[in-house]
Each structure stands twice: as structure tokens, then as C-alpha cells.
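Internal tracking record. Fields below are filled automatically when a chain is submitted to the structure queue. Please do not edit lines marked as system-generated. If the sequence contains nonstandard residues, flag them in the REMARKS field before resubmitting.
Queue: standard
Priority: normal
Entity type: single polypeptide chain
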Amino acid sequence: MITWRVAVLLGIVGGAAVAVAALADAGGSAWLWWALLAAVLLVAGVTALDWWAAVPLSDVRLGRGGPTQVRLGESVTVRLTVTNRSNRHLRAVVRDAWVPSAGAQGPYAHDVDAGPGQTRAIDTTLIPTRRGDRPAARVTVRSYGPAGLAYRQTGRRHAARATPRWTVTALPPFTSRRFLPEKLSRLRVIDGQVVTRGRGQGTEFDSLRDYVIGDDVRSIDWRGSARREHVAVKQWRPERDRRVLCVLDTGRTSAGRVGTVAPGAPDQVGEGDALAGEPRLDAAIDAALLLAALASHADDRVDLLACDTEVRASVSTSVKRTLLPRLTKALAGLTPALVETDFGRVVAEVLRLERKRALVVLFTTLDPGALGEGLLPVLPQLVAKHTVIVAAVHDPSLEALAAGRGTAARLHTAAAAEKALAELARVRAALARAGVQVVDAPAHRFASDVADLYLSLKAAGRL
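SYSTEM-GENERATED OUTPUT FOLLOWS
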């Protein structure tokens, strides 16, 4: 292929040839045409020679290196290496293309100048805009000749074969981890408040110690005392290895975005504010990660299930150090499905996974249609065997819209918002009558409220 320089060179050479022909024979036109033909042939020959001198693309080797994971909103740098394996000098332009959601920063193309056997590196900074796998799309190499008149370029198929495969996984941002130190401090206080003497709810045997005056005689271990030849009592500690199951509803309601409204500014709510904020599923993922981290520090076993009409993700692990990495990896590519959640299938999966009594935290929405027809009929089966929490992200724009006044349009909007709030209250009351704990909080404190309820249940010995 040729560049714009060929046209410039042809203009210069052709103009010079025409000028020479005009001076040689001012009255004839044959010299003019022969001069133009000679100019075209000369430029074509020089261009062909320049194309031949360009480094063949088969002698260019590409490599890739760098991190393969990054939290959403953070940046990562991936390096592309270009190696010249020919005996010619490589002058090339390289385009390292990624999918748009990878958020590639920097120039569109990169100039590469490498001698025989040399390697050059191209760094691309990625700031992903979506969770999940963000693959490299295609690397296109354009090798120029010494004069820059012609170039060799990889075709689509060859570029796809030559492109080194690389995928950067955008993990959930886990912004709620800022609450973790405070929650762990409360957890230590709760563990210290549990009575260690005597038999109490939510405790299990820890060890034996010598009897001292004031100990409850019911704590004496007579067999252990016989073996020790002196009186020994049992010590109890808070019961460990409780089971916590986080269930994420990935149906159509999880795709809804929760509006963000500044406190005290209800009149500033507009029609486009419903698109602000984050999807309900992202807030649920953030809260589930905080709860999992907190429960794992309490030596509880944490499992995760994401389901709508089918199981989208399932994580079960008893190893504490691998819990969060496995959870974040499983949740990275989780996306809402535009289907109605089958709560019968969800409850069946929960009962199959957790045969012992467990704390089941269902991250969903308090939508009356979805819960009234789907969850409430099958909820008794779940409550009979497990302690259940229904956690939903509250949309603060409802209160803001309900407070709107001034015009007829705002008044009708306020009435609709009041009706929606009343329906949410009825759903919460129905869940409470069924023995379910409910968390209905805005996104900025949703994860914290879920963790607080877990700690409250743990302090009360109700897990």
C-alpha cells in the first residue's frame, strides 16, 4: 500500500519532467506525454523498492505482559512487546485495540522504531468501565519502508492470529471495605461480651481449666476431673462455623438503577435522575462482599448463590484465605438477566445447598409484584429451616418525589411516589409477619446496615 507521500513525489517529479520537456521542445506535445510517463514509472519503481525494503510482517513478533486483574474504577498498565526478527530496520505504527469497556487510555497508535533483533515496549493504561472480562481486541502493525512511501499492513485474519491473547478481569470495586475495621471492632466486642462460664445459647466447648471458688458447679467436668485428679470445669466460647449464605437475585429487577438525590433538595429531582446512581446488583455485590469478609473473620462459613431462572454463580468454600478471591472472581462477570426471577427455584437451591440451619441473606428488591407473586408463597419453606434476611436497596428519589409540590405535574408525581412508598411498607410488614428480617436502606449505607443486622443477630445468639 502507498502513502500520501507518493502523490507529493509524483507531483514534484512530474512537474519537473513537464518543465524539462517544455524547455526541450516548446511546440510539441509528444515530449510532454513521454515526460509524464517517465515520471510515473520512476515514482512507481521507487515506491515498489520502498515497499520491498519494509520489514515483512512475518518477522514481527508480538508479546504481552502485565496484570490480569483490576478493581473497577482503578487503573492497570498492560505492556505489548514488539520484536524485530529480521535483518532490516523496523519503522512501524502499531495500534493496540481493546474492547471499549476496557477503557484504554492514551494515543490511538504508537510509533515503533527498532533495529534488527531489538524489542520495543508499548504500555497501555486501562481503566475499565464495567465488571467482567475485558479482552484485547486486535493488534494491527503497519511496517513502513525507509522513505515512507509504501507500507505492509496486517490483514484482519492475520492480525487476529498474531494478536497475543490477553484478558483483564475487572473485579467489583468493593467500596464498602472502608466499613470493615469498624465492623471487626464491634465483632471483637461481641465476642468478649459472650459469657464463657456455663452453658449458654450460641456457645460451644473450648477447653478445661481448674475449678475456682465461684464457678458454677454445673460446669464441672467429672470425667476430666477424674483424669486430672483435681476438679476441672468446662470453658465455653462463642460458637464458630455458623453458616451464612448470600443469595443474589439476578433477575430483571436487579438491573434497575437506584437514583441519588442530595439530602434536603427534593425540588431538584428531574426525569433523568432515575438513571443516576448504580444498578441494584452492584450495590448487592458490594454488600455481599462486606458481609462475607466480616463473617469469615468470625470463623463462619460463607457460601454464595446467584440465581434467577437458573444458577448464575455458586461459590462454596471452607478455606478462609481463599474466600474473598473466589467470591470476587465469581461476581466479576455477573450481570442482570432480563427475566422474572423464579423464587421457587431459588428456594429449592438454598434448601439443597444448606441442609443445616443457616443465615440466608437474600439480596433482592421489595417490588410488590415480584415478591408478592414469587417469594411470599414459598417463603414459609425457607423460614422453617433458616434464619432469613431480605436486603433491598432503597431508592431515595421516592421520598424526594413524594415531597414535590408546586405544579399539577409535580403533584401527580408526588401521589405516585406516595403510593409506591405505601406498597413498600406493606411488603415490609408482610415479610416481618413471616418472620423475616428486612433491610431497606439507601445505597451509600446499604452494605453497612446489612453487616449491622448480622452483628445484631450474632450478639443475640440468633444465628
